[in-house]
Amino acid sequence: MADEQKTILDVQHLSIAYPISIGVVRAVEDVSFTLDDGEALGLVGESGCGKSTLGLSILKLQRPPGRVTAGKIMYRGTDILSMSDKSLLAMRGRSIAMIFQNPLTSLNPLFTVERHFLETIRYHDAAYSREKALAAVQTILAVLGIEKKRLKEYPHQLSGGMRQRIMIGLALIMNPDILIADEPTTSLDVIVEAGFTELLLELRRLYKLSIILITHNLGLVAEIADRIAVMYAGTIMEIATAQEIFDHPLHPYTQGLINCVPNIRVEQKELVTMPGSPPDLVDPPVGCRFAPRCPKVMDICRVKSPSLREHAPAHVAACWLYGKRED
Ligand SMILES: Nc1ncnc2c1ncn2[C@@H]1O[C@H](COP(=O)(O)OP(=O)(O)OP(=O)(O)O)[C@@H](O)[C@H]1O
Ligand SMILES: [Mg+2]
């Protein structure tokens, strides 16, 4: 079929751990998901659930002392985790680019905006003349709505929203296949955030980007993502289309997460919260990691971990409420 989606990223049974003095933080445990060409996938979950660790691993980057303990990350048929350093350096930014969680710390305070762009371009392609590189920068600045005079400015002279735009520009300047955006709107006010959302949708259309959007902002994923993967304590609990996740969430964790979003159209005397807190990832619970907080917990949940299974068309969840118990 001509319009059949092609998978460009296939993460298979990925586990990542941080060995520390008191044990091992199992930050990502047996995570699998795919990303199709041109698709926007939202990765949501509470703080500390492993979203950034997972996002960084797609570029084979880890914060020390993190390391991948199992799994594969297949990008167009090649396992990123077994790529040579040379291939990785060529791949980062050119094939897969990332907007890191803290835009200020990701920019060099001693470099002007122009130098950030020129160094990025020349790093990937030394054959670019200064004129050709500046022409490419002009094009992206126009798309991002950044005035040319900003090129001579340093990061400390820019507002949070402008730094965010520069980061997006740097991520997109080499026209990557996949953009990983880690909490891209946390430093932005609601008006700038709305502008960012529109911009991302426009860039996606213009550059045919595939996007992994990491956030705990459910409103943002609702606007941008085609599909949503819900993470909890290092594991994926549910993956479905954005519509399905909001209309028919299967996992009690997803249901809790959605219930916690305040709705100004419905009179609520108190804000809904989720009782308890995420588990210690050095010593996670046996069985389902959400079991200690789950309002629908059953005996099996405390002894055996459920795997992701399809319970409705293109809708997978890791939950014994719907699963076969004999496996
Ligand atoms: N360098 C490190 N050493 C030890 N543990 C770490 C390190 N970096 C992260 N962790 C732990 O790994 C887990 C996942 O962290 P991560 O930053 O990936 O979460 P996150 O979902 O991105 O959180 P947030 O929403 O706050 O950005 C957390 O329990 C965290 O404490
Ligand atoms: Mg993070």
Tell me what the structure shows.
The two termini are 35 Å apart. The chain is 30% helix and 24% strand. The longest helix has 18 residues, at 190-207. Helix 4 crosses helix 5 (130-144) and helix 5 packs across helix 6 (160-172). Strand 1 and strand 2 (23-36) form a beta hairpin. The chain is an alpha/beta fold. The chain has an eight-stranded mixed beta sheet, sandwiched between helices. A four-stranded antiparallel beta sheet has the order 2-1-4-5, covered by helices on one side. The chain has helices spanning 51-57, 85-91, 103-106, 113-124, 130-144, 160-172, 190-207, 218-224, 242-247, 252-259, and strands at residues 7-20, 23-36, 40-44, 67-75, 78-79, 96-99, 178-182, 210-215, 227-232, 235-241, 309-312, 315-317. The chain has a domain at 7-95 and 176-235: P-loop containing nucleotide triphosphate hydrolases (Rossmann fold, 3-Layer(aba) Sandwich). The structure holds adenosine-5'-triphosphate (ATP) and magnesium ion (MG). The site of adenosine-5'-triphosphate (ATP) has 16 residues, from strand 1, strand 2 and helix 1.
